[in-house]
Specification:
- The structure is a single chain.
- By secondary structure, the protein is mainly α.
- The chain has two domains: 39 residues, no CATH class; 99 residues.
- The protein contains five helices and two strands.
- β1 and β2 form a beta hairpin.
- It binds zinc ion.
- The site of zinc ion (ZN) has 8 residues, from loops.
């Protein structure tokens, strides 16, 4: 074990969870430095993959969550476009459809239920909410386009 990285927790450092005491350990250690439990290499490989998936899932869920601000902006732009510049409505709709891909991709990758970590379950719920929000935005924007076309 490298003495420098020992006390530095970085999300990208491969880590495992001690099966005995639950402490976070660096991948590759032979035994737990907290409870002296011997780490089985097969367990370590499995634990490090799920840990890596977890880190990745949480990170990309956060990216999808930050796009929510874009959604509010989009809805604001929809109202403005509807009132003053209707040709932009189609553009806004396309951006919404593109943004639908974020939660869909997340749910296809991590939403299958074989990951029952509380962080994943919370993210799963959030991603469903994001999905419905963007779907709702698409419906509102499509309606705005239809209304605008009918008015012509
Ligand atoms: Zn331990």
């Amino acid at each position: 074990m490298h003495p420098i990285s020992e006390n530095l927790y970085q999300p990208d450092t491969p880590t495992i969870t001690c099966p005995s005491c639950g402490e976070t350990l660096l991948y590759g250690v032979k035994s737990c430095r907290f409870c002296r439990h011997a780490i089985d290499p097969t367990y370590a490989r499995k634990s490090v993959t799920s840990q890596a998936i977890l880190t990745h899932a949480v990170k990309s869920a956060n990216t999808v969550r930050t796009l929510r601000n874009l959604l509010y902006l989009q809805l604001g732009l929809t109202i403005l476009a509807f009132l003053w510049d209707p040709p932009y409505l189609q553009l806004i709709l396309i951006v919404s459809i593109i943004n639908l891909a974020g939660p869909i991709r997340w749910l296809r990758k991590y939403g299958r239920g074989d990951l029952d970590h509380p962080e994943i379950l919370k993210a799963q719920k959030d991603m469903k909410i994001e999905l419905y929000c963007w779907l709702g935005a698409i419906i509102i924007q499509a309606t705005a386009i239809i209304v605008w076309l009918v008015r012509l």
